[in-house]
Amino acid sequence: MTTTLPSGSDPRQGAAPASRWELRACGRKGHATYAPDEPDLAERLSGRTGSGEVWRCLRCGDFVLGPAKASGPAEEAPLVLRGKALRSAIVLRVLAVERVLRALLLALAVYGVLRFRASRASIQEALARDLPAFRASGIRVDQLALVRDLQHALATQPSRLTLIAVLLAGYAAIEAVEALGLWLLSRWGEYFAVVATAIFLPLEVRELTKGVTVTRAGAFVINVLAVLYLLFAKRLFGLRGGRAAYDAERRGEQLLEVERSALGSAMDADRKHHPHG
């Protein structure tokens, strides 16, 4: 079942060298070793050194000293994030962090609206007192979008401020759910993120028509790219073969599948050279 690894040989035989992402993932989570029940396949994944038995990690492909952490039929081997799937997971979690930041900013906005609603008079007095001083110094602070929005909000009825707070809170909740689904790398999270983000794109376009700023343009570009990436990379809504093609692509990246394919190719080549063997 095991083979001796020649001194100085490269133990990786059927897969491309691990990238830094696989190595970092193994550094954080530990190696994922598995002993398949199929003898020929197990032989390709195992070896023996002077220090004892070694098994290849299903994620990074390196040989790891000691017995495999799990065993069973190759079909029941755990799916690990490696290759394209691992890089995709990193992208999704970066998006999840960005969604968390948005949710926090929106939560602060809710707090601000409710706080301003309770002290509208004092804030209006502060604006009336301080804005002329800023104008006299040459700082056109009243032309800033944030100040204009604040003045407009303070001029509205308390009931409208409550509605604004409720809408902002709902938006923050949507961003939080998006962040959770993307961080968990769940299929529902990907669908939710695409639908929720796409729904708000017309509103972002409307804001851009009022005035292009770095923040607005940056947020719009990020959201458009996120929608396109999720749709095509994750094959959502049946695109590029849908879920079946996505699952087949991920299985094809698994080390066991790579080794199974290499083993089949080796057996076919052997039969060609020894047709009557």
For the terminal residues, how far apart are their CA atoms? Answer: 22 Å
Order of helices and strands: HEHEEEEHHHHHHHH
Main sheet summary? 3 strands, antiparallel
Assembly classification: single chain
The portion of residues assigned to helices is: 55-70%
Percent of residues in beta strands?
5-15%
What is the number of independent domains?
A: 3
User: How many DSSP helices?
Assistant: 10
Q: Could you tell me the number of beta strands?
A: 5
Which consecutive residue ranges, at least 5 long each, have pLDDT under 50?
Answer: 6-14, 139-144
Write out the strand line-up for the largest beta sheet, numbering strands in chain order: 2-3-4
Structural class: mainly alpha
Q: Judging from the principal axes of the Cα atoms, what is the shape? A: elongated
Mean pLDDT: 81
Radius of gyration using CA atoms only: 28 Å
